[in-house]
């Protein structure tokens, strides 16, 4: 039986690397906003991972999350301040160390052209209509660079689509 994979954000790069591997056994892939913002004119600075690691290591986890949101994702300061006041802020702080992994994995956030060219399965790249222009553009460019890629925008919020919106689209795509 074929295996179907879903990768969200930087997890999309992990899934793409597996899909590019000969004999991976994947039948189809859905990606949600792979953050290759370098392809959309927002390359990631090489020192981001080190700075995030320093902030997390000195127990400034909230500052690490804010830095990531503003300097890497490109959210305006008022959006970051709104996030700080949200109920989800404590949860974001708890997983701040994963931002170091994401940033390291993505490097300069450029489009992994060689990896994409080697993916020989259908790939649906989804973006949210409410995400930043850079993330939406990165999703579109990623789909165009894939031999069998398709892009689709869905209603949602910044960097998320409700499961009730995403699940039927994924089911339809995986069904062929």
Head-to-tail CA distance between termini: 14 Å
> What is the total tally of β strands?
4
| Shape category | globular
Arithmetic mean of pLDDT? 92
Derived from helix and strand composition plus strand pairing, the structural class reads: alpha/beta
Provide the gyration radius in Å: 16 Å
| CATH arch. level architecture of the largest domain | 3-Layer(aba) Sandwich
Describe the structure.
The chain has 176 residues and is an alpha/beta fold. The protein folds into two domains: 3-36 and 110-175, Rossmann fold (3-Layer(aba) Sandwich), CATH 3.40.50.1820; 48-106, no CATH class. Helices cover 50% and strands 14% of the residues. The chain contains nine helices and four strands; from the N terminus they run βαβααααααβαβα. A four-stranded parallel β-sheet has the order 1-2-3-4, with helices on both faces. Strand 1 (3-8), helix 1 (11-20) and strand 2 (26-32) form a beta-alpha-beta unit. Helix 2 (48-57) runs antiparallel to helix 3 (61-73) and helix 3 runs antiparallel to helix 4. The longest helix has 13 residues, at 61-73. The model has no long low-confidence stretch (mean pLDDT 92).
């Amino acid at each position: 039986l074929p295996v179907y994979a879903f990768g969200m954000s930087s997890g999309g790069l992990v899934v793409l690397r597996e899909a590019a591997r000969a004999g991976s056994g994947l039948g189809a892939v859905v990606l949600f906003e792979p953050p290759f913002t370098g392809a959309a004119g927002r390359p990631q600075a090489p020192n981001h991972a080190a700075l995030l690691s320093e902030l997390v290591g000195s127990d400034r986890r909230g500052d690490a999350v804010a830095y990531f949101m503003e300097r890497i994702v490109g959210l305006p300061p008022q959006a970051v301040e709104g996030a700080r006041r949200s109920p989800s802020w404590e949860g974001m702080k708890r997983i701040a160390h994963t931002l170091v992994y994401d940033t390291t994995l993505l490097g300069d956030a450029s489009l992994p052209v060689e990896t994409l060219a080697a993916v020989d399965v259908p790939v649906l790249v989804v973006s949210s209509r409410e995400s930043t222009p850079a993330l939406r553009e990165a999703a579109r460019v990623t789909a165009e660079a894939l031999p069998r890629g398709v892009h689709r925008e869905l209603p949602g919020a910044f960097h998320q689509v409700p499961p009730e919106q995403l699940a039927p689209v994924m089911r339809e795509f995986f069904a062929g």
